[in-house]
Each structure stands twice: as structure tokens, then as C-alpha cells.
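Q: C-alpha cells for this one, please.
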Amino acid sequence: MRLISLLFVAGCFIYLTDAEDVVCTKKMKKVVTINEGDSFSFKTQAGAMYEAGTKCTVKYKKNKSCPAIRFSCSEFDLINKNTKCKKGDKMVVIADGEKKKFCQGSSPDVTTTSKTMKVVFKANKKIQGSGALCTAECSSDETTLPSTSSSPSTTPASTPVTNPTGTTGPSTQCSSERYDFGEVLRLSNLFYEAQRSGKLPDNNRVPWRGDSSLGDVGNNGEDLTGGYHDAGDYVKFGLPMASAMTVLAYGGISYEDAYKDAGQYAALQDAVKWGTDYLIKAHVSPNKFYCQVGNGIIDHDYPGRPETMTVNRPAYILKPSKPGSDCAGESAASLASAAVLFKDTDQAYSATLIQHAKELFSFADTYRGKYSSSISDAFEFYESSSYEDELIWAAAWLYKATGDNTYLTKAENMYSSRSQTWTSWAFDWDDKLPGAQLLLFELTGKQEYKSDVESFCDYAMGIQKSPKGQTHLAQWGSNRYASNFAFICIGAAHAGINTDTYTEYADQQIGYMLGDSGRSFVIGFGQNFPKQPHHKAAACESLPAQCTWETFGDTTKDNPHQLNGALVGGPLAANDVYKDDRTDYIMAEVTLDYNAGFQSAVAGLKALACNSSSSSSPSPSPTPIPSPVPVPSPAPAPAPAPAPAPAPTSSGTCLKDKIFYDHGEVTAYGTNPTGGHCGFKELPSEKAKQYFVAISSQDPDGWKDGLYCGSCVRLRYTDGKELIGYIHDSCPSCPKYHWDLSDYMYLDLTSEQSVGIKDISDAEIVECPDEIVSGNMKIKIKEGSNPWWAAYQVLNTKNPINGMSMSIDGGSTWLEMVGPEDPAPSGFWFMKPGGFILNADNGMENYKIRVESDTGDIIVDMIGVIDGGETDAGTNNAGGEDCGGSAPSPSPSPAPAPVPVPAPVPAPVPVPAPVPAPGPSPSTTTIAPGPSTQCSSERYDFGEVLRLSNLFYEAQRSGKLPDNNRIPWRGDSSLGDVGNNGEDLTGGYHDAGDYVKFGLPMASAMTVLAYGGISYEDAYKNAGQYAELQDAVKWGTDYLIKAHVSPNEFYCQVGNGDIDHEYPGRPETMTVSRPAYILNPSNPGSDCAGESAASLASAAVLFKDTDQAYSATLIEHAKELFSFADTNRGTYSSSISDAAKFYNSQSYQDELIWAAAWLYKATGDNTYLTKAENMYAARSQTWTPWAFDWDDKLPGAQLLLFELTGKQEYKSDVESFCDYAMGIQKSPKGQTHLAQWGSNRYASNFAFICIGAAHAGIKTDTYTDYADKQIGYMLGDSGRSFVIGFGQNFPKQPHHKAAACESLPAQCTWETFEDTTKDNPHQLNGALVGGPLAANDVYKDDRTDYIMAEVTLDYNAGFQSAVAGLKALACNSSSG
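A: Here is the predicted structure, written as C-alpha cells:
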């Protein structure tokens, strides 16, 4: 038994740590650590009844020895009015960022592998009950949160206060960027703003930072305010600060266009200027320079925020008697590089910088010595090893800034006579030699410097790497060293030195930090970024909170402020292990110099990815190319006349991840609802004007730059009374959990006689009731808008808006509308995407706006841009009971077509000059993701994966494409496909990256797709993808019906593999010979005909409820094809020699069994079941199949027969197959690796069969877990996505001729196909690539690799159906 430790605070809250069993008292908070083997009880009370008014909170922390925490109750009786847990007593379990409520009629059983689980028991003040007896235990069952039908209310747990500026800005990502480098630059610039010392500007974007160290002065009272805090402390160390500014400026000079493409050039200049302004202040006379303010020892003893710091901060000066050539020289380099950075934007400032740089360099060069010998405190923290490198570096920068050859001569002479002739150990704040070598090569082009740069980068590439690829030089700041290597080497690549090799190396190092390692090391970016950097300011709650070493050391809580953009130190060893713990001052350290090289390397990668660069180099720089504007090509025809938008469909789980706070407070601010930060001119009802609410803008989970504008919040007072109010404003002075109400609402809620501040029990975003919002949603166009610039506002919404998108091509392609933050106007506005003009002259007067919310999307047809106009959506986004609000409001009947209604004409507003629309761009624009349909227990957004995979099949279509074709770069193809007697064989699917229509794998893919749709119909419908699935299957089965030209004749192939593989171009312009290959009694093909029969029969089941006539047609052809296949037996590849080269069949028995089973399911005719079972009993293959794929259907037939009969024989065979699959060798990251060709295909097919087994009740947990791991590997668990268009680092170069061929009039040859320096011009959304060749997780994104980068119809079929199965189980929906 472990000891119990108690801490009593103010006589009411009890915090216990390291205890075991819990017995709730009236107000209790407790932390319990669970180790392997632990099992602790949780009781809601000691006696027979729990006490009214009890609130008991227990946080369970999982020790590393424990795989998972499970919390379940054997007795559970809480008093509540209903099972929705809206009022009365409840238990709340928070795990994996989700909140589940349990009350009357439900009982928790929750398992999580996360570090913590929080359990809250809350009892009403008026009633007592018999309570609950529960157990918290370490569990080996690592399943995630089960979906609980009795807990409809799912809301996020409250999170630490974060920086609102962390909201992701508009993406500036070029098609070949693996990560959004522009967003990384934005965040990193924000990190420097969080490090500012001194008087902050009015445009300070870090709300938890304020003015600090305003008393910093020199020994003679000189003003030394400003500059930067060095790291997580507040000393202003001059050498690393100046070094960071130089490296930042270097990156801005070299990659100016990349910064400008990202919209971050001005922010970079601000970051550099904040440092150089301070360096100018510190340079108080030609030969005197303050190199440090603050004492490291004193500073490190202070635990609080900088704004309230009062410790002694001495200033340390350099002068002739106390030299510091390194600090003064680096400061000269910093000022000179900044002069170059500002030369085109502020010539006066540039001249000032040069003057100070010259004087500082003269001082440093004349009075030589190390600064750390003159400043003893600096010696303790940043001891310098030499000053030669800084003098060379400074002289080179002065030459670049002035053009004065004296400085270049000085730099080269010092370089040739330097004492350090070996390759530098690193490039960092202490050693500038690698940077000087690169700069000198850029300035002179001399081979000497080039060779030295090569030596440094080649040395860097040879340093030991961690298993996931980090160059690990040292334990302290390992990411810093890796990113600095990347910065020098991307600079070398930019200068023409080993460009491909060094770019790849830099990309790998930066990629490691952004997500390739399986996590992000940059706060605010990517997945699983650090929450606890070693940073006193970020770890200190805002006033009036007191910050001590005790609060700093309490690592059970993440930092209350998010230090966006900071790069943490990283792993101590070359083992990829990182501990997110602010007390670890090595791994969790953040500093000015860590970010400088990293940020500049990211800019370099963006420049090369986007073909933009700025600095001159010995080799010609590439001409800057603007990032393509995502406008579909060709320009779409005007949309048809607007029609009423359809009512939104429910996503199945209403209001995901919206606010629920289990505490808070309210006050009031008046009776006048006019104005408000949301920018609404008028509130939607009299009740809204009576009960209006301002939400805290200090709460990033709440305000979200205005995303909750127009939403409703239900507030519950401590006596249980509830009222719903309308959010129309923000409260800048209100802390998180504080709500500012109208006087009416405050007095009605609290029953007080006057306004004050009162506690509330909880606050929850809910659907607006009809008395607050009724009628249809509207879209308002902002006054002053025009076809070139327009802003839109959504009015009269029942539920929160998640975002808006615009389509100018009738809904095929959707472009994000940025808002409601910069660059949108202040208030609840969303911006028209750039790059096109919304008027009739450009064919874009008719367009669509999609309003996205948890209850579904509403698409509104728009006509032109009418200044101040409003358009009625014809419906609203109500979700009904599941949203805790009203049922959907009916639309006016009949709803007229939406027509923009002009508002009163405002005073004239200056209209921006028209900007010419750019010409059509390559179709690399990703089709915008649809609304998320992700259930709470889905690890990935499976609905989005299904959407993308359906799009892949559309990209594979052959023949005459329909009017609703959603792939803009695909057109009609192979319209001359005919049989030997002229039969129409157009349609069907291209097999892979080529254009042959191979019948066996095509039919196999259709059967597996249909099987998934039949088994998991509800999952597809929840995802809004059922109709698209049916379209995908029907495109294939329509073709199979065409190919079945008579009862005993079937065309199994169109196109010749050898001929087709010689052609490099697009299918739309292909003119090669395409022979057709027929099966008949003299040329049998039982496998191809049998599989086609299975395909048609399974499709008949898929369509039986939606198109009975088509289903009957499918059955008729399936019967005839099965009879033909069964009567005239033989393998098709013996009859079609060309097929034998590409898809050689081993047997036909499996297809006949499979087809007979499907015919039984489609018809109910027992003849077919008897046939299937007899053939199964007499089959020659009695061993466990090697795989389930286009060639072997036996595992699928075994599963289907078990579903049809329930017989143990089939169940055992299915178990044998899945157990065999689970025993196959796995890669280090978990892929079941069966074979090199299509390794992902085999793994996903195993997953499909095993999730089907789980769905049928066979080892449900085990097989579900296995399938989840295999699909998870492909979606991101491996550190990358293998599905194009989904997740992080997805492939850009699939082996696919059509996607690799630019649109007309471009010519496509094998030379263009093999030019892998360019990614495919068209994005093949949804395609699953083949995957690693070996069980080593190595994937090369190279279209010429026809094994790893292959895509095919059958690769996606099992994968897509497995994803549907996982979604069905996660959302508790199934159909088959």
C-alpha cells in the first residue's frame, strides 16, 4: 500500500496525491497515480446516500508501466430526470480530450491509453441518491473510449489558456511542400514576439505578455529597455541574441520571396528590428557596448512572470579595457545583415544600421578578446570559444551591406590566417565559421569556400542519426543543432552546391521536427506538440495568480499560456524519446537561437519548394514564380439559376468539440445590445435582445476570433436554474470561464436584485431555441464589397458555424474562405478567396457558398456581389433534440429561389482597383474536405477518407464522363472501345496508372466495394458517402453488363498491356490500338466470369432498396455469367495471353464459390447456397490462403458463408486466416508486410477481412484492434500518410500517367514523366499507394518507382471497405 498525502487548502478543497481508494466528500479534488497491477475503488459517498451538493473531482494519472486506465462501475444509481444528463446528478468522465456524461440509465465503462483520465461526480443541491461504486484500474486492454449510446452529450474537456494568435492562418502551402512552411514561419515569428522585453507596441499579438523590465539602464543611466529575453528566463544575453538576429536576417535576405509568399516578411522585419533597435541602444559610444543586461544567477532564482519582476538587473559593458570581439563582432554582423534586409523598405534605418555596424566592427577588431573573459556571468552560461569566426562573419556582412571591398579583403585575409582550419563541430551562437564560409562563397564564388561548405554538410550528414532520422550531435538543444545543419545545407543547395542531396537532408531534419518523428517539436504546429516548454512566463498564469517554484514544478498541469512557434530542445539521446515536462531544462528548453536557424531553414525549404529565392549566388537564382492561385481549369461555365439549398443532414453526433465548462462566473454589462465585436447590425429576435451574452476573448477555446458569434450558450446557476443566451460580443477584460450578460439575463438567472459577480455550475454551447433564432439562415455581403474583394457574414444560425467555403465551378471544387480573423474585416466575416472576379464578364456571376457546421453543410446559390445584400438560404442549420435545442425550423413553403436583397445604399466606400484575374493554373488544388462526420472514438476522420477514396475511383473512369464529373483534369477517353463485332465497350475503369481495362481485378474491386457498402451502409450514410459509393460501383457494373454481350460471351479485357505501357500521355488524347479480348466456351475464364457474376450479384444487394429495376438487371446478368463460368471451366489467363503477363490467375474455384454465395444473398435461392457449400467442401485448396486479393477470394467467401449460415466451419477458417495475418512479420512501425508489391494493399485487405470478422462477432476486440493498427499505419501512425490528399506528408508522385501529365496544350512524354524534380501536376485524391518495398517503413515518393508508388483499383477497394468497417464500429453502426 502506498502512503496517503493530504494537503488542506482554505478548509474546503482537499488535494490528495499518491493515494489509492477514493471516497467522495462534498468538495474534493484528488490526483491518483495508477501503476501496473493497480486497482482502486471510487465511491460517491461513505454512507448509504450521497450528500446533496457534492462535487468530487479525481484525476487519474497513468504511470509508464501501465498500458491503459479503465474506469467502470459495478453499482450506479444517480438521480436525474432523464438519460440525457441535462439536469440533476451525473458523473462525467474526461479522456482523450472528450467528455462523457453518465446518469440515470447509464453507467461508465471507459478505457484510455492517454496519460490522464478525469472523473467528476456532481450532485444536485436538493436531492440525494444511493450513489455509485466504481473501479479505476490499470488495464491491458488498450481500446479507446467506447461509444456509449446513453451518453449523448459529448463536449471537450477544458484546456489551458492558449494564445489566440495561434489560430492557423490562411495556408500559403505550395504543392510540393510536405508541411505548411508558411504557417511554421508565422508561428516562429510569434515566438519572438513572446520573447520581447521592454515597452510592448500597441499591436502586441501575445495577449498574456505585457511591458517588462522598463527599468533596464546602463551604468550611467543609459536606456537599455527592449531587446529579447534569451530563453525561458529573462536575461538579455548579447551574443546569442545578436547571433539569432543575424541568422534571421540571413534567412530573410536569401528567401525574401518565400517570406512574402507566406505573408510573413513584415513580421520577420519586425522581429529583427526589435533586436537591432536594442543593439543600437546598447552601443552607447563607438568603443562601448553593453553585451548583457541581467544576472543569470539572480534571474534563475526568480520563478514568476517578467511583468511583475523586481529583481536586480545589472548591465555589463564591453570597452577597450574589457574587450569582447565575439559579442561586438556578432552585433556588427547583426546590424549589417539587417541593413541589407531593410535596404529596400527603410533606407534611413538601413544607413543607421550600417553606421553602428562599422563602429562596432572597428571596436571588435581593434580591441580583441573574448567577451566571456570580460563578463564573468556570461562565462557561466554562454562561454565563448573564439572570436575569429565572428570577425570574419561581420566583415563579410559589412561587404554585402556596403559594397566596400575593404571589408571583403579583410574577411578573406582573416579567413586565410584563421587558427581553426578543421571542419567546425557545429554552426551555432558560438561558431559562425560555417555561415561565414557559405556567405563568402555566395559573395565570391571561390572553390575554397565551396569545398569548405561541402565538407561541413557532408560531415553533418555523417553524424549519428536517431531511428527516426534526427541528426543527433549533443544532448543539449539537439533540435537546434539539427536545424542549424539544415540551415547551412539548404543555403548550400540554394547556392548550387549538391542541391538535391543537401535539400533532401535539410528536408529530413526539418521534417523530423514538424512531424516525421511521429510528433511535432514546434509548439502550436502539427500533431502532439509540446504543452510544457521550460518557460517561466508561459508557465505563469495571468494576474492576479501568484507564480512560485511550486506552481512551476506542478507538471500535472500544462502551461496556462501556449508559447506558439517555439522549437523545444528535443531528445537527450539519439533515441527519439522526448518528455514533455517543463522542469526538464534540457529537453524542454526554448531559446532565441534555437528558433533562428530553424526558421531560416524552413524559409529555405519553402523557397525551393515554391521555386522562389532572393539572394544572389554564384549560380543563377531561379526566377521567382508566384504560388498558383487555386482556380479550376478551365474556367467553369456560369452556374444554372439558383435553387433552394437542401436542408442539412445530421452528422450523427451534434455539436462536436464545442464549449462545455463545469464551472464559471457571470456578471452583467447593461441593457443595450447594439454594437459588439461580432459586427451584427441587429439581433435575430426580441428574446436575443433581452438575453445577450459576451464571451471572454481571453479564452481561445471560446472566442476563437469570433467563431462562436451568433451561437447560443446555456448557463446553469448554482441552484440548478438554466437560461439560454445569444452570443453577440466578446469581453476583452473577462478571464476564461467568465460570461458577461445583459442585465436582464443576469438578474433572471441569479434571482438577485442587483448586478454583481456570481458563480455558475456549468456553461454549454447549445442549439438556439426558436424564441431566440427562428426562420432561415441568411448570408450577408459586407458594405463596400465588390467582385474583386468581398466579405460575407452568416446571420440567423441555430448552431455554431465551423467555416465557409466558396465554389465557382458548380460545387465540384471548394476553396476555403478565410475568417473570422485577419485578413477578414473585424467581426464575424469570411473572405472571398483571391484569384478570381465574381462577375458576369468573367463567367463567375453565379457561385455557391457552403456554410459548414456540425449539423451538416448548407449550400447557398449566390448571384454576383451586391454591396450590403442578403441572400436567404432557404433553411437553417438546426440539429434538433441532439443539440439540446429545438427541432429544425421549417422553411417557408414553398421556399423561393434565393435572391440577393440589397440593403439601403450606404455612403460611398472606396473600391479597390480591379486586380486582373490570373490565368488558369495547374489543377493541383485539393478538393476541399467535406464536413467532418468523425465520431468521438474515431482516431482519424474516416468519413473524409471514404470521400477521398470515392474520388479516386472517379479519377479512374474511362469512357464518356458525366456532367457531374468532379475531377477537373479528367475528360472523356477511349470512346472508340468496341468488341470484335463492334459492341460498345466504352466505360469501366482504368486499372492503375495505365489505361488497360483488366476485367478480373476491376470486377474484384467492385465486389469488395459493394461488400463494404452492404456491411457498413450506415457508416457510409453517416459520412454522406453512400450515394458516391453506389456511383462508384455502378460505373463498374454498367460496364460489366455491356461486356456481357450474350449468355456465354464476355469481354474480360480491353487494351493491350504492352502497347498501353509504351504510351506516356493522358488518356483523353490516346490513339493507340486497344484490342478487346473475349471469353466464350472455347476460350473459358471461370475466374473472370465468376468474379464478374459476384460483382453484379453483390451490386444487386447494394441497390435493392434504391433501384429495384437495376437490381433485377444485375441479378439476371449475374445468373447467366455464373452459369457460363461454372459450365465452361478454365482460368481466363490461359485464354487471354496478355492477361497472363499482368494478372495471371492461379485458380477459379474461389471465384465460383464466392459468386454462388453472393447469388444466394442476392436472390435467396437455396440452390446457390447449396452449390457454394458443396464446392467449398470439395475445393482443392484446404490450407489457409496466403492473402485476400484480386486472385484469391477464398477468405472473403469464408467470411460471407459464415455470415449467411453461422456455421462453425466457416468461422474457424476465418479465425485461422486472421490469426495467420496477425502473425506475419511487421515493420518497426507496425505494417503487416507480406510482399514488396502492394504491401499496403495486402495489409488493408487483411484489415478488411478481420474487421468483417469482428463485425460478425468473431474476436471482436482483437481483430478490431489489428485492423485499426493496419489502417492507422496508412493514415498516419507510420509518421506519414499513404493516402493522397489525406493527413500529413501524403505522396505527391504516384505512378499514374494521367495525374503526371499536365493539362492541354502541354505535351507529355516519358521525359516529362521521369522528371521527378516536379511533383505530379494533378493530385490523385484518395489513391492508396503501394507502400514500402520491405518491412522497414521506407517509402520513396517517386513516380518512376512502379512498385512503391503504384496505385490500382484493387488497392483501394479493400482499404476503403476496411475504413468503412472501422467507422461503423467506432460509431456503433452496421448494416449487413
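A few notes: The two ends are 50 Å apart (CA to CA). The longest helix spans residues 347-366.
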